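URGENT: need a sanity check before tomorrow's submission.

F., can you look over the Lon protease homolog 2, peroxisomal isoform X1 record below? I want to be sure the sequence and structure line up before it goes out.
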Amino acid sequence: MASGDGIQIPSRLPLLLTHEGVLLPGSTVRFSVDSPRNMQLVSQRLLKGTSLKSTIIGVIPNTRDPEQDTDDLPSLHKIGTAGIAVQVVGSNWPKPHYTLLITGLCRFSVTSLLKERPFVLAEVKQFNIKTKVEQLDKLEQYMTPASEGVTAEDGELGKLSHKFYQAAVQLLGMLDMSLPVVAKFRRLLDSLPRETLPDVVASMIRTSNKEKLQVLDALSLEERFKKALPMLTRQIEGLKLLQKTRKKSPDNEKTVLSVRKGGVFPGQQFNLDEEDEDEDGDDTAALERKLYRAKMPEAALKVCLKELKRLKKMPQSMPEFALTRNYLDLMVELPWSKSTKGKRS
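Structure tokens as predicted:
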């Protein structure tokens, strides 16, 4: 399974087709499975397998598995992620389905389809062990003073890596370090290979599947840094705005920190006399009431309620939990119903 150059995946992989999420190497994503081919993949491959190899599958994003197994396959997204199914949970309510927890290993492309039923099996090409190691060697060179033979083009990759790392450190510094998951990632940041940072950070921060697909499709390390850096910068700017809106009122000294199961989020202030202070500890219900009272546009409210629904299902141990919660807090605190008088130039 493994070689000295890194992870070596099988040349043939069963494919999980999904249109709901994007699995990036180094990330762990939960997928709900209820379509015919995907269900057959789980029941015939994952549940009957007896080796580690049998738990490795290919995840093809941006591709919907047909509702009927007699229907033809749609065009497959050109890049997929090989992953290990670390957990499989089945249920018959409200209809038969499985929930898979998959950890991404590496990128691949489909070279040919071997069969379409009962599940999709394909010949795949892995990207690209030797090239990845060579790129990592380049990055290690840039952690030391410049040596002879380093070109301007090579130097650009080193600068991007350093800039991305500094931005990731800045983002973590703006989050609550009392959260175990935030503290853990801060420790991992210095131990993770720099080449993994674009994938890992893009999977953690709040961004669209379309943007995650752009990172997945970036096969060169330099392009991957360039795709992921704007997402990281946008997250930092959003947290800066959140911090500016959280100013303590001089007329109200009765404030407390918001304590959640995951830890304490500094800056979140509540009036002790507020009628919506949540006595049963379910602060997602209180957050939902605040969203409705924020008087935001209907389109913005729709997006926030969708994110709140995701938040309720998300384990608090996931890094994205704190980021999603901070985003919703920001949306609540923005002055949607207030305006200023000014003249347009």
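My own read: DSSP finds ten helices and ten strands in the chain. The longest strand covers residues 97-115. If you see anything odd, call me.
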